[in-house]
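Appendix C: a fully annotated inverse folding record. The material below is reproduced so that readers can follow the format used throughout the book. The structure is listed first as tokens, followed by the designed sequence.
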């Protein structure tokens, strides 16, 4: 499968200030408001804004939980954690037949949590046969440097969802959600 992004996904994120920490989910729910409800963000703390405005509240070490939810591809939303820690919400987001892919990566120290794939509330292995065609042409082995592995994960998720992160994503409107 030679479906590749127009530009390096990690370089794109770093160019927009996301080089310290990347915690993101791809959710098979098209409606961002539904994603926000499932994440239990109060409607009154949710506002529409663009990526640049959302990034003003990017604080990898901040305590207040903030996410930016955007349309990703038909039938998919993207959730970007801007600040605050959170336990994985993939199980709740995936209920009722939905799928969620989750990546958590800390740049600089090159720490990558095990990628999460959840379908209908059940954790599954993103490396299993279901997605083998999406990995087949990528040069992964146990010596692959962490940043390259993150890049490969972003490519695989882009292939599965039908869209890579791109300049249009960084100029799109989304929902900035804040947990009071």
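Designed amino acids, in order:
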């Amino acid at each position: 499968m030679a479906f590749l992004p127009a530009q390096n996904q990690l370089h794109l994120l770093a160019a927009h200030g996301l080089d310290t920490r990347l915690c993101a989910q791809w959710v098979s729910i098209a409606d961002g408001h539904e994603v926000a409800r499932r994440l239990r963000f109060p409607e009154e703390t949710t506002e529409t804004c663009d990526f640049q405005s959302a990034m003003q509240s990017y604080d990898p070490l901040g305590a207040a939980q903030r996410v930016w939810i955007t349309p990703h591809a038909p039938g998919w939303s993207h959730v970007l954690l801007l600040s605050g820690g959170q336990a994985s919400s993939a199980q709740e987001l995936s209920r009722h037949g939905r799928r969620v892919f989750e990546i958590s990566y800390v740049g600089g120290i090159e720490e990558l949590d095990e990628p999460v794939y959840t379908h209908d509330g059940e954790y599954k292995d993103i490396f299993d046969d279901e997605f083998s065609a999406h990995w087949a042409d990528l040069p992964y082995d146990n010596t692959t440097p962490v940043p390259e592995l993150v890049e490969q994960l972003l490519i695989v998720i882009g292939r599965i969802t039908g869209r890579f992160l791109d300049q249009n994503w960084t100029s799109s409107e989304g929902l900035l959600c804040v947990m009071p």
